[in-house]
TrEMBL record:
Keyword rRNA processing (UniProt): no
Quaternary structure, from the entry: Homotetramer.
Family assignment from sequence similarity: Belongs to the glutaminase family.
Keyword Hydrolase: yes
Name of the protein: glutaminase
Record's keyword terms, sorted: Hydrolase
């Protein structure tokens, strides 16, 4: 059976195709002549699966979308503290290429890395202050190619056309040089910046690049850790507040996905932990964003519930509690012993809120009743506590630490604890008292530890 997702993407394109407002970027000759009928969209999942529709093989220059990835490279090469000395993180409230509003009026520091002043400063930090134009552009081209999963190239025609009309960017670069925010030659910084903007991509490339950001900096197909997770968090944060220029507030309200646009008509959206989106249509609105691209992203966000502030699906069923009775003994005249087991089952990608709920549930079920919680402690007499991670995809760092602490506290209380962890999400070594704590992969192993190899399970339990 074929996936219905490409059909849905085609319907999204047909819904937005009638929009005719906007104009292609007129100040770059190649872009001014772009075929404005071209329209494409792509989705890339964090596991590497990709879906696309429309003119998904048509290449166009990445333009300002490169700013997000070069910012990450600058952090990698210079360190976040150095980058923050040179580039701020506040929205500029003005045009992406404006001189008066693109730098702080008191310090001349660029307002953020998503406008031209900040992007030129970020470019100058790649590799190092003494690097050549060729060394910086080579580093950037190789990194963007790894993100896309294929070799990308620079469109030399676009590069030459942009270089002809680079006076405004040259002016910005000289202001930055005079104020000490770039150390290299201003002309070299601008030439390198323009060259990074002239790298050609298609929407499938961009979706995969965005999915790498969603995947904590790890390329979904190759598995290469291209950016550290902390760098990705910084990039996505600035994309959220500044990525769509002075339309960022409207974008966050209507779409709610960290994003970046480019004047060739491309847009990327990166929803952390879920998927990367890319859209392409050359006609731009007055803010410099693709008219149809914005409409595509707005529709998909509404249809698919992608807004990062959407609380329509609150996690209230992360933890499931059940009880099983295991019959142990009974052989050679020995009496049958019925052992109550309380099972706490977690599900999904578990973060702090999921583990907080588990901790609270464990305390409620096993602690003595109080005036505030008279119904607590119903299973204080449990012979063993089982924590099942069978349906857990991942535990983040804080969730794992809380679960470690929960287990240690249960053991201190003298309880037998068994963790079912087939994917080794817990990452915890067996504690010293191996009679009280076990990590197993399957339910059958847990039953054996609780009741012995000849144990029987009460048929009223449906968990095992």
């Amino acid at each position: 059976m074929e996936s219905p997702i490409p059909d849905y993407l085609n319907r999204v394109l047909e819904a937005t195709r009638p929009l005719e407002s906007g104009q292609p970027a007129g100040y770059i000759e190649t872009l001014a002549k772009a075929d404005t009928s071209k329209l494409a969209v792509a989705l890339a999942m964090v596991d590497g699966t990709i879906y696309s529709a429309g003119d998904d093989q048509v290449e166009f220059s990445i333009q300002s979308i490169s700013k997000a990835f070069v910012y990450a490279l600058a952090i990698d090469d210079a360190g976040l503290d150095k980058v923050l000395e040179k580039i701020g993180v506040e929205p500029s409230g003005g045009a992406y290429n404006g001189i008066p509003v693109s730098v702080d009026r008191s310090t001349s520091r660029p307002m953020n890395p998503m406008i031209n002043a900040g992007a030129i400063a970020a470019h100058a930090l790649v590799v190092g202050p003494n690097a050549t134009v060729e060394e910086r552009t080579d580093r950037i081209l190789k990194a963007l190619s790894r993100l896309a999963g294929r070799q990308l190239h620079v469109d030399e025609t676009v590069y030459e056309d942009e270089l002809k009309d680079s006076g405004r960017n040259m002016g910005i670069a000289y202001i930055l040089k005079a104020a000490g925010f770039i150390e290299c030659d201003p002309q070299d910084a601008v030439k390198g910046y323009i060259r990074q903007c002239a790298i050609n991509v298609n929407v499938r490339d961009l979706a995969m690049m965005a999915a790498t950001l969603c995947n904590g900096g790890k390329q979904p197909i190759s598995g290469d850790q291209i950016f550290p997770q902390q760098s990705v968090r910084q990039v996505l944060s600035v994309m959220t507040t500044c990525g769509m220029y002075d339309a960022a507030g409207t974008w966050v309200a209507n779409v709610g996905i960290p994003a970046k646009s480019g004047v060739a008509g491309g847009i990327i959206g990166a929803l952390p932990g879920q998927l990367g989106i890319a859209a392409f249509s050359p006609k731009l609105d007055k803010k410099g964003n693709s008219v149809r691209g914005v409409a595509i992203c707005e529709k998909m966000s509404r249809d698919m519930g992608l807004h990062m502030m959407d609380a329509s699906q609150i996690s209230r069923s992360t933890v499931r509690v059940s009880v099983a009775i295991i019959e142990a003994g009974g052989g050679k005249g020995k009496p049958v012993e019925k052992r109550k087991v309380i099972i706490f089952s977690l599900k999904g990608a578990v973060r702090f809120t999921g583990l907080e709920r588990l901790s609270r549930t464990i305390a409620h079920e096993l602690s003595p009743p109080t005036p505030e919680h008279p119904d607590a402690g119903k299973h204080r007499d449990a012979y063993a506590v089982v924590i099942s991670l069978r349906e857990v995809y991942s535990l983040n760092k804080i969730a794992r630490q809380i679960l470690h602490d929960d287990i240690q506290r249960l053991l201190i209380e003298g309880r037998r604890v068994i963790v079912i962890d087939p994917t080794t999400a817990l990452r915890m070594e067996t504690v010293k008292d191996e009679n009280s704590f076990h990590i197993v992969s399957y339910e059958a192993e847990a039953r054996d530890f609780i009741g012995g190899s000849g144990c029987k399970l009460n048929p009223s339990s449906d968990l095992w």
